[in-house]
């Protein structure tokens, strides 16, 4: 890529960032910018903190553990709790540094358990992507993180072999380990398009999360998402993710362009982020070929 093309690319990214912040501030979101550097105290690390350290860039300074920001939601939750912020709608932009990569994200968080308001914020992001980024999201994957707690016992969820089989969608391994009458095995044995209806009919405890999935699924269909795929066996990356989780893909993307979901830490909330690394992938490839 030539220096001139690189300059134009950089200016375009900065323009998009300003456009995003202006648009969401106009829509009533409070804007938040946080330091890239996060500080942790050894004696206050939670189980989630310890788990996430494996995917963070970390180093020790005195009695503190320092890390580059690897997740916006986690950073905002910490900041909001520490300073007792009363705002219920936040928009942000900036990089995150999960292990071995850098991602630029635009995102929002809403701190409410009102599903209608959560759906409205998702609509704000989808509309922004369509109008300002001229991007068509063709595929959505929808999960519900409360399902595993209802399908597996605590000891089963703590079993690394079972969780590995679940992550791999290894039906044979799960059948051997759990038995063919286990709810997970019975549900996974059904054709994917039939799993929601099967869960609703044969597992009364799953009726509420299934109906929530269907409500969000209907909203996605209204937004002209061509393919909506339900994944009932997703494993949450952190324990505070409790409910609906969404991933959106464009026709060329191997990584999700838009991700987010419902969580509780310490209050019910919903957040989503646009992954600009995926968004600009096609553009970069095209520019690379023409340079």
TrEMBL record:
InterPro entries (alphabetical): aa-tRNA-synth_II/BPL/LPL, HisRS-like_core
Domain of life where this protein originates: Bacteria
Keywords linked to the UniProt accession: Glycosyltransferase, Transferase
A Gene Ontology molecular function term of the record: glycosyltransferase activity
Domain Class II Histidinyl-tRNA synthetase (HisRS)-like catalytic core stretches: 18-273
Entry coiled-coil feature ranges: none
NCBIfam families for the chain: PRK12294.1
Designated name of the protein: ATP phosphoribosyltransferase regulatory subunit
